[in-house]
Amino acid sequence: MHVQIILFDGFDLLDAIAPYEVFTAAAMYAKEEVTVKLVSAEGERMVTSGVNQLKLRASEKLVTQSGGIILVPGASGSVDANDPDAIPVKLQRATETELSDLLTEAFHNPDILLSTVCGGSLILAMIGLLEGRYAVSHHMGMDLLSTTGANAIHARVVDDGDLITGGGVTSGLDLALYLVERELGPRIAHAVEQLFEYERRGTIWRAEGNAPNESQKEDSLEAPILESSNQINELIDFQGVWDTTISTPIGKLSVLLHLSAENGRIVGTARQGKELVTLDNPVLEGNTLKWTMKVTKPMHLTLKFTVTVDGNEMHGVAKAGMLPSSKLSGHRIS
């Protein structure tokens, strides 16, 4: 069994070290060879963690061509959404390195079992790898995980086949023990538990067995029909082509909005570069227009927009989970 634990600038120490300890202990009990390495996208280097800037050495570059387990930790830092050094910003910075391409390669390698601890799942989600997949993250990042198109599951550890994700920081112990059980068997996992005097917590969630009864029906996502002429008249203020700028914590995006009314419904599209997407569920509430929209830049997200219009000027915000709100401003060009 070959395990690679990824280090990136700002990583959380416990996310990486707890699994490292578990896998190393398992190697003492296993008859087969077990190797555990700390790696980075750049190769051998000292990597600064998000905990008091403590550094660990990555011994080599992440390898994605062979098989084994790859584990992605989360980040440590400020939880203030407006802090430029907040955890989501650190995670996004990690996706802007070669790590993004390497994880994509690993994700599509059938011989690799990809795993994450805490916010590590958000790194995969931000580069568009978790859409439609079952996963968990730290409880403060679950809303953000959902906005990327993942099926966010509130569980200690989620097993989605070739993807295993753990929840909070200490879930690294539980996730690693489960991986040891999966790969080396329950007796070796139990031996490690005895050595550490720690018993794995929680039920491993899988998309198997009987589903629990749903207590609430899903809300309809169908766009509302405008019922009164007053609403139609209000909508006219929004119709047209809008040249807008969305100011995010990691840069500005230029987006061209097309808004109109068809058969009493609000419809619209947004163009960012060569990418054209449809506005989902646009609804007019008084003088405020709201909609959701999937974007792939600067990361894969579903953003919730709230905007108002004053003449030919548009202002508003876009929000996605725990990420800081992004400001939208623009003007009508036709």
Automatic annotation (TrEMBL):
Domain named DJ-1/PfpI: residues: 2-181
InterPro entries per the UniProt record, alphabetical: Class_I_gatase-like, DJ-1/PfpI, INH-QAR
One GO BP annotation of this record: regulation of DNA-templated transcription
Alphabetized Pfam families for the sequence: DJ-1_PfpI
PANTHER family, sorted: ARAC-FAMILY TRANSCRIPTIONAL REGULATOR, DJ-1_PFPI DOMAIN-CONTAINING PROTEIN
Full protein name: DJ-1/PfpI domain-containing protein
Species, as recorded: Ornithinibacillus bavariensis
